[in-house]
Structure formats: structure tokens, C-alpha cells
Amino acid sequence: MADKLHKTKGIVLRTVKYGDTSVVVTIFTELFGIQSYLVSGVRSSTKKGSGKANLFQPAAILDLVVYHNELKHLNRLKEFRWAHIYDTVFSDVLANAVALYMVELLGKCLKQPESNPELFQFAEDCFLTLDKSRGTAMANLPLFFAIHLSHFFGFRMTDNYSSTCTWLDLGEGSFAEEQPHHPHFTEGKMAFTVSELLKAQHPGDVSEMKLNHDFRRQLLFVLETYYALHLPDFGTLKTLPVLREVLG
Hints:
This protein has helices spanning 93-109, 117-132, 135-149, 188-199, 213-230, 240-247; strands at 4-18, 22-29, 33-39, 61-68, 74-82, 167-169, 174-176, 185-186. The chain is of the alpha+beta class and 248 residues long. The protein has two domains: 1-85, CATH 2.40.50.140; 87-248, de novo design (two linked rop proteins) (Up-down Bundle), CATH 1.20.1440.120. The strands form two sheets. A five-stranded mixed beta barrel has the order 1-2-3-5-4. The protein has a three-stranded antiparallel sheet with strand order 7-6-8. The longest helix has 18 residues, at 213-230.
């Protein structure tokens, strides 16, 4: 089966040095889902390689021409360039912390290399919104991303919050009338805020939600627990302590 050339967009998730001058880069592509590519020569100091490793920073959105063979675990890139040049994601400390959190969460969810254009569009939209966000909008974006990302992997929370259903059962992913008989739940303002976040249609919709730093930190921890309950081998998020620190 010959390798075929395809044009696709991609979001960089992870880059690992390979040999003296190359990298192996994991990219969430619009056409093929999560894929790994060997990119030769981008770390060399020659004119050909100069500055090109920059394109493979986590969260970078690229236009790609890829060789694709389903039988290979490692394909190659023929061409790559910026699809979008960020204003703040690589330079602003908080924006970068949010972006790396989103990248890690997305990477932990993506297990199989399968096409999911709706998920790609959602993720790209969130990264582009992040790049234009400031202040409250930026600080709330990881909450929106985590709550709505689960929808694409089959464990979206049900927004059945009401004056009688006020306990958020993280195991069931829905609101209950009574305290669950296990420790994985939250209540009060935390449960209400999850319901409000579920109602948001677009990442820009959370820009006006007034939440304090400690509250956001606690809610990020609740959402990490939610993912760990629903995704096998999820573990913990390495980027979360950093994000919780900069949110302060």
C-alpha cells in the first residue's frame, strides 16, 4: 500500500527530539485524528532547518501536507507552515498555561487515530478564542474546554440541574436530588456553575462569568476527577498544578 499525499490542518500536541536534527511530533489532524510524524532536519543550524522547530510547539495550528499510510505508526510530513500565528499563546504566561492544559487534556482523551472533524473544529475554535481572550475570559476558558470536550468522547454531563436536583454526581455525570452514596460529587455554587458552563454554546460565552481564583482552582480539580472516573488510565494532569498556580 503506497503512501498517499493529503492536505490537512493539525494541532501540535507533543514533540520529542529524534537523533541529532529531527523530531517526532504528535499532531491532532483534521483528516486522520491523532498521528505521529517524523520530521527530519528541523533542529539543524543550517539555513534549511533554521527556526523550523518553532512550528512544532504544543498548541501550534499548522497547515500540513502529509504522507499517509494506515499501516504505519510513523508517517512523514512533506510540507508544514503556520495556519495561524498566535498573538499571545506562546508569549503570555497565563495564555500558555491554559493552552498547555488544553493540549494535555486533549492528548489524554485521543486514543485512536480516527477522523473527528467536529472535535477538531471545537478544539481549534477554543485555541483561537484563547489567543484573543484576556482576564476573566481567559481564566474561564479551561473550564469551558474541559466540560465540553467530554461530549466528543461519550461522557458529556447532563444538565438537569434544578431547585431540587442540586448534587452533581461525577460518577453518573448528572445532577441528583440526594447526596450520592460515594465521595465523587459536588454541590452548591460549584454544581450551579457546572450547569451554567454546560449551557454555554461557544468559548466566548464564559467571558462574563465572575468566579474567584480559588473557586476556579477547585472546579478544575473536580473536572480532573470527572475525567479520571470516565477514562481508563487517565491518571492526573501534569499541567494542572501550573495552571492552578498562574490562575492565582
